[in-house]
Amino acid sequence: MPSFDEVLKEAGEFGRFQKRVFFLLCQTGIIFSFLFASVVFLGQAPQNYWCRIPGAVELSERCGWTLEEERNFTVLPLHLGNGSSSGECERLDVVWDASISCASPLARYGNHSTGNLPLAACHDNWVYKQPHSSIVSEYNLVCGNAWMLDLSQAILNLGFLAGAFILGYAADRYGRILIYLLSCLGAGICGIIVAFAPNFTVFLIFRFLQGVFGKGTWMTCYVIVTEIVGSDQRIVGIVIQIFFTLGIMILPGIAYLVPTWQGIQLAISLPNFLFLLYYWVVPESPRWLLTRKKGEKALKIMHNIAKHNGKYLSPHYSEITISNEEVSNPSFLDLVRTPRMRRNTLILMYAWFTSALTYQGLVMRLGLVGGNLYLAFFISGAVELPAALLILVTIDRIGRRLPFGISNIVAGIACLITALLPEDIPWLKMTVATLGRLGITMAFEIVYLVNTELYPTTLRNFGVSLCSSLCDLGGIIAPFLLFRLAAIWLELPLIIFSILAVVCGLLVLLLPETKGISLPETVEDVEQLSR
């Protein structure tokens, strides 16, 4: 009986069928990038807001004040009395009732000078000129509540983390395409509920669930794409990440055109429902079917692939070699039971963590350009395109391992040089920091490909999901690490990033080279590959 890779070569390793499936699944990367980075626009800080004095609503209606007039009566005395106060987080400790004069509402406090009027902290009585422009104004995430915005992003990353474990496991047990479609449905439904959440608690719960399902769509589509192409075509795993970058570049355009956060949330969530149409055009992974002892279904799909590719399978291809490895429900122990699988798993987990931590840290530190948020975000995405192009140029000529190691080391050295350069040459610091960003972006994209190629089919989705969960852990830690250490010394985070990246670059050189090698089907294949 022929092996799966032999049948795939005859059916076409990257023909019209695979190209169509690849292009369709690439759209998932665009939508996932929207979710990944949406907090930048959902959580924009309101430009003009103040704390309202109790009774001000009724008084404004009685006196016929505009919002601007009310603000002048509320904030101007506070600002004159205390120049450091803008009226955003504190208010005059007074109450306006029916006895207050419309012409001079503070007249009854005439025995106090403006600077001696009592003050009170604001808790939940803010007024925004654009109350629905972001979740900050919607749920009052300002002043003492500002940390809740960071919590919303941490909750999303926790959702990614949970999705990596739960849906990664489910995709290996119940099938790639089933979990992909359920994840798309879940991400769409949860996204709609987030847009209309009546309070911040409901918002957090369903943002967490959207993170769970969003991670399921991204990881599962990546594995499907990798498993239906030949060993020489697996750089499609890098190309699919270019679509993630395209999403990063498209997102600011959506945010610019849509004035409310609910509109942005719906715009980035509703496309998930379109992916349900893939039920009729994207098949189950035949590699996965073989591991579940479903050779007939796998062969039927291979005949369909060959037909669409204009090929014809030989008549003796009536059966495909089925993995002799006993199929069981995957667990973490399966990833560390044998010595070379254990080494690969631990190195890959560290590589995921380092890539995410350094990548997000450099993005937050650089800021790229100031002023126009939409333009700055667009440029931050454009910077990533050269990294993907460099990978495409080098990975099939040099291999995976060397670019993987060098990109990490370059990122680490660039971080160190940036930290040591003097502040009076900002253009050079920016240039070197950008080089570090390119290096860590390359490392981040290569780890996806290498992770997929170093696990057997029976454990591939679970292995990729488990290792990539360290990426989500790095994403949670990155902002806290950056800002806490920067408070001690501005460049201290770069020193930490440098050490982590260089160590990672050295460790990944211990991984086996996978260029041009068939995807391993069993754990024994992985052990032989490492030898």
UniProtKB/TrEMBL annotation:
Task: Give this protein's Gene Ontology molecular function annotations.
Answer: monoamine transmembrane transporter activity; neurotransmitter transmembrane transporter activity; quaternary ammonium group transmembrane transporter activity
Q: Where in the cell is it found?
A: Apical cell membrane; Basolateral cell membrane; Mitochondrion membrane; Nucleus outer membrane
Chief subcellular location equals membrane
A single BP term in Gene Ontology: histamine transport
Which superkingdom heads the taxonomic lineage of this protein's source? Eukaryota
For this record, an example GO cellular component is: basolateral plasma membrane
InterPro entries in alphabetical order: MFS_dom (IPR020846), MFS_sugar_transport-like (IPR005828), MFS_trans_sf (IPR036259), Orgcat_transp/SVOP (IPR004749), Sugar_transporter_CS (IPR005829)
What keywords is this UniProt entry annotated with? Cell membrane, Glycoprotein, Ion transport, Membrane, Mitochondrion, Nucleus, Transmembrane, Transmembrane helix, Transport
Q: Does the keyword Transmembrane helix apply?
A: yes
Pfam families, alphabetically?
Sugar_tr (PF00083)
Q: Which residues cross the membrane?
A: 21-42, 154-171, 178-198, 204-225, 237-258, 264-282, 347-368, 374-395, 402-421, 427-450, 462-482, 488-511
Recorded catalytic reaction(s): these are: tyramine(in) = tyramine(out); agmatine(out) = agmatine(in); (R)-noradrenaline(out) = (R)-noradrenaline(in); L-histidyl-L-proline diketopiperazine(in) = L-histidyl-L-proline diketopiperazine(out)
Q: How does it sit in the membrane?
A: Multi-pass membrane protein
**Domain (Major facilitator superfamily (MFS) profile) ranges:** 99-516
Report the PANTHER family cross-referenced here. SOLUTE CARRIER FAMILY 22 MEMBER
Family according to the record:
Belongs to the major facilitator (TC 2.A.1) superfamily. Organic cation transporter (TC 2.A.1.19) family.
Could you tell me what this protein is called?
Solute carrier family 22 member 3
